[in-house]
Amino acid sequence: MSFLVATDLSENSRGALRFAADVARRTSGELVVMHVVDIAASDNSWRILVEAPDELERSAVLQAREDLEAFFEAAVEPALRPERVRFTVELGNPIDQILDVAEALQPSLVVAGTRGASRLQELLLGSTANRLVRQSSSPVALIPPSQHHGEIRTIVAPMDFSDASLESLRFGAALARRHGAALRIMHAFVLPELSALQTSVANVSIQLQQVSAGKAQQIKEYCSVVDLEGIDHTITILQEPPHLAIVDFARDEKADVICMGSHGRRGWARFFLGNTAERVLNHTPCAVITVRHIAKG
User: Fold this and answer.
1) Tens digit of each residue's pLDDT (9 = 90 or more) over 252-275
2) Which pTM was predicted?
3) What confidence tens digit (pLDDT) does each residue in 167-183 have?
4) Residue 49 pLDDT > 90
5) Does domain 2-143 have CATH number 3.40.710.10?
6) Which residues fall within 8 angstroms of residue 10, CB to CB, at 6 or more apart?
7) With contact defined as beta carbons under 8 Å apart, do 251 and 280 qualify?
8) Dihedral sign computed on CA atoms, order 57, 59, 65, 68
């Protein structure tokens, strides 16, 4: 079992580094810590004009390797470190390199922070988040700066009845079993718009009860295909827009991780795209693990 964590050496990425190190330690896995040097985009891009390419790349990698090891030593206290840690420095576009290393390594989890060095260099918002979540064949954990450890006691698993959310439920159940964590399965929905003749309190209340009952049966059947035996788990149904319900529910449950599919149905299909992703990642109280469904055949 291995875990890949990417860091840009910023203060905001310390949470991701600590989370990945602690999870690797708790599962006796190997931690691979990577940093990508994009010479053309760095403050030292002027050196391209005065140094030979080979010399420039060699010196950049050596310096980055030294900085990376020092950053790890400063960011991760000894008690959180796994026995096996290795460091790698790559040259090029950060996301391209993260995806290439992840493809070669096939880690159990790819870990990165939700924030980079500045607003102009945020690693995981907008199109960059879209690429990492969509293209990584391994589950991706997005860690807010406030995350200080990898202890997993409570996992929130949002469901929307898609293949992607079923995949994420299986992953969440396995994670809960491995860590002895509680699994809180939830589904959120919004009632369809009603006509003027249907907007009485009584009609809305009846419709809400009917829809909730149907959803409860549906999610019970949906979850029956996943082995939840021996796991402390509950199922909650909420009448609220999904992106709001997930954050509120995770906060109320004091969740350590939100585990969900990266592609869902309708309103959830774009959960990790554009403005919705930015809103949720800006307000999530904990780590978010996305699990991509890869169709067979």
Assistant:
1) 999 999 998 876 454 444 554 444
2) 0.82
3) 999 999 999 999 999 99
4) no
5) no
6) 113, 115, 116, 117
7) no
8) negative
Distances (CA, A) of 240 to 106, 237, 253: 36, 9, 16
CATH number of 154-291: 3.40.50.620
Parts of the chain belonging to CATH 3.40.50.620: 2-143, 154-291
Contact 240, 269 (CB under 8 A): no
